[in-house]
Amino acid sequence: MAALVSEWLTWRTAMERALYGEEGFYRRGERPAEHFRTSVHASPRFAAAIVRLLAEVDALLGRPERLDIVDIGAGSGRLLGNILACAPDDLAARLVPTAVEIAPRPPDVSSRITWRPDLPERITGLAVANEWLDNVPLDVVEHTPDGVRTMLVDPSTGLERPGPPPSDEDRDWLANWWPLRDPGDRAEIGHPRCNAWASVVGRLSRGLAIAVDYSHAREARPVYGTLTGYRDGATVPAVPDGSCDVTAHVALDACTTAGERAGATSTLLTTQRDALRALGLSGARPPLDLAHRDPRAYVAALCHAGEDAELIDPAGLGGFGWLAQTVDIPLPTILT
């Protein structure tokens, strides 16, 4: 039997096809919660924290008649649904919720939510990109005995081989954000994520954009990169055949600079733990005397404490990076 001929692609092309092609992982309507744990699906307390942030943005904007809330990479639409459910009536009545998602609209999504595959032209309010940037396709390079090379991948197996030298754009990004020092070192070229984030910030007329994601900083880049796959709640090899999510952590520090070039007027780069604690999620157990005074309230508070603890766990969801950038308003004091 003749051997199958492999199609060698750059990782960026392979990821684009595997995730967003005609039969891609997300194009066919796969939901993130079915494959990995997200803050949105861990607890509605995440949405409640976003509502507190949204209320401060609303105040900084002078409580406009129309206030945008845009969920980028909306998945099932649950974040916006939870926001509408827990927002105060005055705020909820003025909200214009938009889900940006290429997958089909689920039947249970509120009719108030606009469902679209691309970003709105202009945003006045709050844009949230929760675990979106890590799925923006990118190329992978490796320091080989012949110098730095762009890695090619067989999409059916995940096997790799060295390809051509990186482009000038790739080399510039590497020099600024992820320099390779020793043979075997690898990097994920992050300028597609920088450009994607800049496209969000550039659409803010006035307001705040936040990116929440797996991240790393220039002084502590992982030597061998972070490319991996997720399927059915488990980590699997990153095979870009459309059968699994393929992801890599985000250089949020590089995205910070891209956002500033796109017009951001203030910036905060922090962790989910610190951000959510500032927004009122402490994870503290309720006082024991509440169990005697109001047993139902005690049980509810205990459940909330457990959910908060998961969301702010520094070894889990709390370790995510939070990049907050504003246009034409100051950073909300609740975050600082």
Please give a structural write-up:
The chain has helices spanning 11-20, 39-42, 45-60, 78-86, 89-94, 168-177, 191-201, 252-261, 272-278, 289-293, 295-312, and strands at residues 9-10, 67-72, 95-100, 114-116, 123-130, 140-144, 147-153, 160-162, 186-188, 204-213, 228-231, 234-236, 245-247, 266-271, 321-327. Helix 3 crosses helix 4 (78-86) and helix 7 crosses helix 8 (252-261). The longest helix has 18 residues, at 295-312. A seven-stranded mixed sheet has the order 4-3-2-5-10-15-14, sandwiched between helices. Strand 7 (147-153) and strand 8 form a beta hairpin. It has 336 residues and is α/β, with parallel strands linked by helices. The mean pLDDT is 91. Helix content is 32%, strand content 23%. It is built from eleven helices and 15 strands.
Which tags fit this structure?
single chain, about 325 residues, alpha/beta, 5-stranded antiparallel beta sheet, about 30% helix
Strand order of the largest sheet: 4-3-2-5-10-15-14
Tell me, briefly, the overall form: globular
Given as residue ranges, the uncertain stretches (5+ residues, pLDDT < 50) are none
Termini separation comes to 65 Å
How is the biggest beta sheet arranged? Answer: 7 strands, mixed
Order of helices and strands: EHHHEHHEEEEEEHEHEEEEHEHHHE
Alpha-carbon Rg, integer: 21 Å
Average pLDDT:
91
What is the β-strand count? Answer: 15
| Category from helices, strands and their pairing | alpha/beta
Note the total helix count.
11
Strand composition percent: 15-25%
